[in-house]
């Protein structure tokens, strides 16, 4: 690899001259596997472009924008080379949408957009239409549902009642689920303010894993709520609607999810916060946003307050605003154990020009979004590879030195980005909405805002570095994408450092086993302390240290930061609570927590691949199956030492009997075990069952359970025989008083036949018995009431009435005498 010197803006940078073979060979197997799925385009001859060809395509397209500003071809070629160099050296990359679409037939769009959901059907469904088009294009969207009226609020036009914000959230989720099935899609964020009357309904919206699966959700905390929480948590919490105080609502729903009412509840500030914490502890949602802190740094106050962010919380935007993202990989700036800050400055400046050019290429399917992109010219230059940079520098993430380094790196990026934006404003003009910004009358700027820290999932995979400002999830882990494709990772910087120590084969083997099983080395107390101190991972770090690092970066970030506190499965609700409060005290703008293993399906996993539940599975079905297995395997305390019924064999034989009842012909099947003893009973009413079929089915299930548990058959018969129902009937086998009586008599006949105790009746015996039954019933009762109160029709279940000496059904026409 040869080198040359590039001079730009009075800075000298040594730039490698890459050949395509070197570039293509620099990507890992995991990176190539992901890039082939997402970034490498198919050429006209049917082959896929190489990574170097991809970078050439992106650099050429973005540099071509300079022609619009009067640059000649030599200048354009110079910018193209600089753009290519910072990407080929893995120092910077635009966001995935730009990498995918630049230079292709597909329009370039940004992932970050916020849309309005206002309190009218017109707004709700116009936004849904716009959102559907943007989702289809791949944009990530944010929506604040706080503007919608609470559930059961009267509506004037329909003269009905509102179904509430969560109901419309479910409508959006269903619509995006359909779009999601058609290919790549953007993620979504839904927010609600804590003082909305339906806030509790929103907090509980994702209680079951798999519900509202196309959204992340966050609760917006106000300064007044957080002060009350920390100073007087036992005070009653009141919400506001149309400027009036009201108690929080407990929204009441039918089993199908429809709203049927609400009740006002007394709940303290501490109690409602504890409920939020409980849900976040259970599955990671909702996250929280400190909305007042967000608006303290609103760069465009002339457009009004900001009420929502993009899906991952790093971009708080006005309605229809968007942000163009890109990230600097800090890991590549560590050279010979030192960090190259001058090189970082050059890459920052080149990145800002590159990202500003991307805005001119935007073409959204919703015109309002394209227009505001041009008026505000927001960019979100962020970082990745920070944790890997610390590994190479030998600095612990959870240390004062680590936080100081993070703050210094981000300070330089933010300062250089703002300087470059000022220079571009002189060169190309200010952003049109500057009169509505904090810069008006102070200085010229090309962009309303410049820095942010995004989660950098796929682009971190492409450059094989840690994500955003996050600590590494684990030293070894398995990541799976939305299609269930798995990627195995073992941290290359740990591996390189490990080789410098004179460790035995047994020690290395135990270290590798520990990393596979836990992802961490903190339990290995016999390895060098320096290793354990430096190579910490997400779950080795306290919530307080997570938030201190986020705060260190936030001080030099225009917008916000995507950051998660990753807890081990053993973390308590109090740990989550402290993490949230720490985020507020450290003046962070948002906070997300996640307890490892709290969801059935996870993107990042420690352990063996065969134990990982695929992202393509349905979590609701998996959870149902787990619950059933748990019910089977765990013995309830009240059932301890009690009888468990025998397992039914696949094949079993028996007899079916027919008996007349007051509800129609009853067919009773009795199957025997290998010893000829009744094992199970089934009964079906001949006339499709009617009203009493479910009774006979339930009765037979219980009888079968008793038989399989070896309860004496004669005791079962004694308990059921003689039970009187509303419609007795006379048969050649005697009076059948009810369905239980019929089944008991058949069961008795069955066991007596096996014992040889039944004599076939003669016709004279049958006639005499039937006449005796008639006489007995006539003498005992002359009224229908003697046969029971309000007997049911065997055909439809309606009430039978006594008419002209016979009981008949007025609903279906059934007549007992017919």
TrEMBL record:
<keyword id="KW-0215">Deoxyribonucleotide synthesis</keyword>
<dbReference type="InterPro" id="IPR013344">
    <property type="entry name" value="RNR_NrdJ/NrdZ"/>
</dbReference>
<keyword id="KW-0237">DNA synthesis</keyword>
<dbReference type="Pfam" id="PF00317">
    <property type="entry name" value="Ribonuc_red_lgN"/>
</dbReference>
<feature type="domain" description="Ribonucleotide reductase large subunit C-terminal">
    <location>
        <begin position="111"/>
        <end position="594"/>
    </location>
</feature>
<dbReference type="InterPro" id="IPR000788">
    <property type="entry name" value="RNR_lg_C"/>
</dbReference>
<comment type="similarity">
    <text>Belongs to the ribonucleoside diphosphate reductase class-2 family.</text>
</comment>
<dbReference type="Pfam" id="PF12637">
    <property type="entry name" value="TSCPD"/>
</dbReference>
<keyword id="KW-0560">Oxidoreductase</keyword>
<dbReference type="InterPro" id="IPR024434">
    <property type="entry name" value="TSCPD_dom"/>
</dbReference>
<dbReference type="InterPro" id="IPR008926">
    <property type="entry name" value="RNR_R1-su_N"/>
</dbReference>
<feature type="domain" description="Ribonucleotide reductase large subunit N-terminal">
    <location>
        <begin position="27"/>
        <end position="105"/>
    </location>
</feature>
<dbReference type="InterPro" id="IPR013509">
    <property type="entry name" value="RNR_lsu_N"/>
</dbReference>
<keyword id="KW-1015">Disulfide bond</keyword>
<comment type="function">
    <text>Catalyzes the reduction of ribonucleotides to deoxyribonucleotides. May function to provide a pool of deoxyribonucleotide precursors for DNA repair during oxygen limitation and/or for immediate growth after restoration of oxygen.</text>
</comment>
<keyword id="KW-0846">Cobalamin</keyword>
<keyword id="KW-0170">Cobalt</keyword>
<dbReference type="GO" id="GO:0071897">
    <property type="term" value="P:DNA biosynthetic process"/>
</dbReference>
<feature type="domain" description="TSCPD">
    <location>
        <begin position="646"/>
        <end position="750"/>
    </location>
</feature>
<protein>
    <recommendedName>
        <fullName>Vitamin B12-dependent ribonucleotide reductase</fullName>
        <ecNumber>1.17.4.1</ecNumber>
    </recommendedName>
</protein>
<dbReference type="GO" id="GO:0004748">
    <property type="term" value="F:ribonucleoside-diphosphate reductase activity, thioredoxin disulfide as acceptor"/>
</dbReference>
<keyword id="KW-0547">Nucleotide-binding</keyword>
<dbReference type="InterPro" id="IPR050862">
    <property type="entry name" value="RdRp_reductase_class-2"/>
</dbReference>
<dbReference type="Pfam" id="PF02867">
    <property type="entry name" value="Ribonuc_red_lgC"/>
</dbReference>
<dbReference type="GO" id="GO:0005524">
    <property type="term" value="F:ATP binding"/>
</dbReference>
<dbReference type="GO" id="GO:0009263">
    <property type="term" value="P:deoxyribonucleotide biosynthetic process"/>
</dbReference>
<dbReference type="GO" id="GO:0031419">
    <property type="term" value="F:cobalamin binding"/>
</dbReference>
């Amino acid at each position: 690899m040869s080198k040359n010197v590039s001079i730009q803006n009075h800075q000298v940078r040594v730039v490698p001259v890459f050949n395509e073979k070197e570039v293509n060979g620099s990507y890992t197997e995991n990176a190539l596997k992901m890039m082939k799925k997402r970034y490498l385009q198919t050429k006209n001859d049917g082959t896929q472009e190489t990574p170097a060809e991809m970078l050439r395509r992106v650099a050429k397209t973005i540099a071509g924008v300079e022609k619009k500003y009067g640059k000649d071809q030599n200048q354009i070629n110079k910018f193209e080379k600089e753009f290519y160099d910072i990407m080929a050296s893995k120092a910077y990359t635009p966001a995935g949408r730009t990498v995918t679409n630049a230079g292709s037939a597909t329009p370039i769009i940004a992932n970050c957009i916020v849309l309005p959901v206002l309190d009218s059907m017109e707004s709700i469904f116009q936004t849904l239409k716009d959102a559907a088009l943007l989702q289809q294009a791949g944009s990530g969207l944010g929506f604040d549902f706080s503007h919608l009226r609470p559930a059961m609020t009267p509506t004037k036009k329909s003269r009905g009642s509102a179904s509430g914000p969560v109901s419309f959230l479910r409508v959006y989720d269903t619509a995006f689920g359909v779009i999601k099935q058609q290919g790549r899609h953007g993620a979504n964020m839904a927010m609600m303010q804590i003082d909305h009357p339906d806030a509790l309904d929103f907090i509980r919206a994702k209680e079951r894993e798999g519900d509202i699966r196309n959204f992340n959700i966050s609760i917006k905390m106000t300064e007044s709520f957080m002060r009350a929480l920390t100073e007087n948590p036992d005070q009653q919490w009141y919400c506001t609607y149309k400027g009036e105080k009201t108690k929080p609502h407990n929204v009441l729903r039918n089993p199908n999810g429809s709203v049927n009412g609400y009740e006002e509840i007394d709940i303290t500030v501490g109690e409602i916060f504890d409920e939020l914490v409980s849900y976040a502890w259970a599955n990671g949602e909702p996250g929280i946003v400190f909305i007042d802190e967000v608006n303290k740094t609103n760069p465009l106050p002339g457009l009004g307050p900001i009420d929502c962010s993009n899906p991952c919380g790093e971009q708080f935007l006005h309605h229809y605003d968007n942000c163009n993202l890109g990230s600097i990989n800090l890991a590549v700036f560590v050279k010979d154990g030192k960090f190259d800050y001058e090189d970082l400055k050059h890459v920052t400046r080149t990145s800002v020009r590159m990202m500003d050019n991307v805005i001119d290429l935007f073409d959204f399917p919703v015109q309002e979004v394209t227009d505001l992109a041009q008026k505000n010219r927001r960019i979100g230059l962020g970082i990745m590879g920070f944790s890997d940079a610390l590994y190479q520098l030998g600095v612990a993430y959870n240390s004062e030195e680590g936080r100081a380094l993070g703050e210094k790196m981000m300070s330089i990026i933010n300062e250089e980005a703002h300087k470059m934006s000022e220079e571009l404003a002189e060169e190309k003009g200010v952003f049109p909405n500057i009169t509505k910004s904090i810069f008006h009358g102070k200085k010229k700027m090309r962009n309303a805002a410049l820095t942010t820290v995004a989660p950098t999932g796929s682009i971190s995979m492409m450059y094989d570095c840690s994500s955003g400002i996050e600590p590494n999830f684990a030293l070894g882990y398995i990541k799976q994408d939305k299609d269930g494709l798995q990627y195995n990772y073992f941290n290359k910087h740990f591996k390189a450092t490990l080789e410098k120590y004179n460790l035995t084969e047994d020690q290395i083997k135990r270290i590798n086993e520990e990393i596979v099983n836990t992802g961490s080395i903190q339990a290995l107390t016999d390895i060098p302390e320096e290793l354990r101190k430096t190579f910490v991972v997400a779950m080795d770090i306290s919530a307080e240290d997570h938030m201190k690092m986020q705060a260190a970066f936030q001080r030099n970030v225009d917008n916000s930061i995507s950051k998660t506190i990753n807890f081990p499965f053993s973390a308590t609700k109090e740990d989550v609570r402290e993490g949230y409060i720490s985020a507020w005290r450290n003046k962070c703008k948002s906070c997300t927590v996640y307890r490892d293993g709290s969801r059935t399906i996870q993107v990042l996993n420690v352990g063996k691949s065969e134990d990982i539940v695929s992202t393509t599975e349905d979590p609701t079905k998996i959870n149902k199956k787990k619950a059933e297995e748990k019910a089977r395997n765990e013995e309830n305390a009240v059932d301890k030492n009690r009888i468990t019924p025998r397992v039914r064999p696949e094949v079993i034989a028996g007899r079916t009997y027919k008996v007349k009842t007051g509800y129609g012909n009853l067919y009773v099947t009795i199957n025997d075990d290998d010893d000829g003893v009744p094992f199970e009973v089934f009964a079906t009413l001949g006339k499709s069952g009617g009203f009493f079929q479910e009774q006979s089915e339930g009765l037979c299930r219980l009888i079968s359970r008793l038989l399989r548990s070896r309860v004496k058959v004669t005791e079962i018969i004694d308990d059921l025989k003689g039970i009187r129902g509303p419609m007795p009937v006379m048969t050649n086998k005697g009076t059948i008083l009810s369905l239980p009586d019929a089944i008991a008599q058949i069961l008795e006949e069955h066991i007596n036949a096996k014992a040889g105790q039944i004599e076939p009746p003669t016709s004279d015996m049958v006639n005499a018995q039937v006449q005796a039954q008639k006489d007995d019933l006539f003498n005992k009762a002359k009224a229908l009431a003697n046969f029971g109160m309000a007997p049911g029709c065997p055909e439809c279940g309606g009430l039978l009435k006594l008419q002209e000496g016979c009981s008949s059904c007025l609903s279906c026409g059934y007549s007992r005498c017919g």
